[in-house]
Specification:
Blueprint: H1 4-7, H2 11-21, E1 34-38, H3 45-51, E2 83-90, H4 92-109, H5 118-157, E3 159-162, E4 173-176, E5 180-183, H6 196-211, E6 217-220, H7 222-230, H8 232-237, E7 239-244, E8 247-252, H9 257-266, E9 273-275, E10 279-283, E11 292-297, E12 303-307, E13 313-318, H10 321-324, E14 331-335, E15 339-346, E16 349-361, E17 368-372, E18 380-381
Parallel strand pairs: 1-13, 5-17, 5-18, 6-9
Antiparallel strand pairs: 2-16, 3-4, 6-12, 7-8, 10-11, 12-17, 13-16, 14-15, 15-16
Length: about 375
């Protein structure tokens, strides 16, 4: 077994370690909907063709302890892919704990000492692997968690935004892909008066007549589905049947998601609802990125997206500055999504940095539309 500190002091071994533990890490969701597309430079060519040149600076995670990546000011940077990243120190106590396990395995297990069983050796090795996963998962996945957050915001609202960051409070990141929006006449939270099923029917019809798009996917999050199920109009129109040993039992007033989809497809002749239950985990409250401090729906509340399929655009990425010109004092590994991990061991301290230069780009914006269900002013009226 190669000691941890030796693994991260050699780029080849560092990469092998990350490759080995990465399947155990949290898996990004944006990869299901955005196609990886490599850019030679940070110049934002793909998005220029979509919405024109947009001023974009470089950013880091809202809770990051890492300083802003050097770049021009917000007024001078146009059409550049943003840079995301984090800094994560590993304390001496954590290193000591890892070394304790490694030394024990070396002294007891690897020496052929029969006092320790193979099961105990396996358990200790699993414990070490889990410690490594818990240390590297947050730092490797925070940039891709940001990609998830932006990707689902683009799908559900047609925008990509970071309103505030810890290190750039005066430089908001806000891109509007100008997706066509409609609003309902009664918000869906009004369970006595809202008419979600009729709204969805009207939405699909308006998208066809206004935009000439035959959509095949209607997407929303679980909270929006719950609003549909609680509405009086849904309960009135849907009758459920439960099969028992004594025959079928008729139930009214308690529709299920399956009942809703049967009604949409059968009565309204529109696509069934695709439920997007992805969650974005926010880390870093108080500077601690090792634990989740907040979770929320990735697909925004109060929104329904109508699309042609679920391939929404390109995950545009390019090389980070250190991938082009590595620093001799650091060792490097690359994690999923082209996240660069750099490790530095110096003067008894150890730290890991992550850096990613990328953005999900909603190139499918002309093949979709959005229904706003939580206000009656955004976009065009549905009726």
């Amino acid at each position: 077994m190669t000691p941890f500190i030796d693994l991260v002091r050699d780029s080849g071994k560092f990469q092998a370690m990350i490759t080995a533990i990465e399947p155990l890490m949290t898996q990004p969701q944006y990869t299901k909907y955005f196609t990886p597309t490599f850019n030679e430079t940070k110049d934002w060519k793909g998005i220029e063709k979509v919405v024109g040149r947009v001023p974009v600076a470089s950013y880091v995670s809202e809770h990051s302890g890492k300083s802003i990546v050097k770049t021009g000011t917000i007024g001078q940077v146009y059409g550049d892919l943003p840079t995301w990243g984090d800094l994560y120190p590993i304390t001496s106590d954590e290193l000591i704990e890892l070394q304790r396990i490694e030394n024990y395995l070396k002294q007891k297990g690897m020496s052929g000492n029969s006092a320790i069983s193979q099961m105990q050796i396996d358990q200790l090795e699993d414990q070490r692997t889990d410690m490594l996963r818990r240390k590297f998962d947050p730092i490797a996945r925070m940039p891709t968690a940001t990609m998830d957050m932006l990707a689902f915001e683009e799908w559900s609202n047609g925008t990509a935004s970071i309103i505030n960051t810890k290190n750039a409070p005066k430089s908001g990141f806000d891109v509007d892909f100008e997706v066509k929006k409609y609003h309902v006449s009664t918000v869906w939270s009004d369970k006595n008066n809202a008419t979600a099923l009729a709204d969805l029917d009207a939405f699909v019809y308006r998208v066809w007549k206004d935009l000439g798009i035959r959509i095949d996917t209607i997407a929303l999050n679980p909270d929006e589905m719950r609003k549909i199920l609680l509405q009086k109009s849904s309960a009135d129109i849907i009758t459920s049947y439960t099969t028992t040993s004594k025959g079928q039992i008729k139930t009214t007033g308690r529709p299920s998601q399956e009942d809703v989809n049967i009604t949409l497809q059968g009565q309204y002749r529109i696509p069934a609802i695709t439920l997007i239950d992805a969650v974005v985990d926010i880390r870093g409250e108080g500077g601690d990125i090792s634990t989740v401090s907040e979770s929320r729906n990735a697909f925004l509340d109060g929104r329904v997206a109508a699309t042609v399929g679920t391939q929404l655009g390109d995950y545009m990425y390019t090389l980070t500055p250190e991938q082009r010109l590595p620093d001799k004092d650091y060792t490097y590994a690359t994690a999923q999504g082209n996240v660069l991990l750099s490790a530095l061991s110096k003067k008894g301290e150890f730290s890991i940095e992550s850096e990613l230069c990328a953005l999900p780009v909603l190139t499918g914006r002309k093949r979709m539309a959005i229904l706003v269900t939580d206000d009656t002013t955004t976009g065009d009226s549905l009726y």
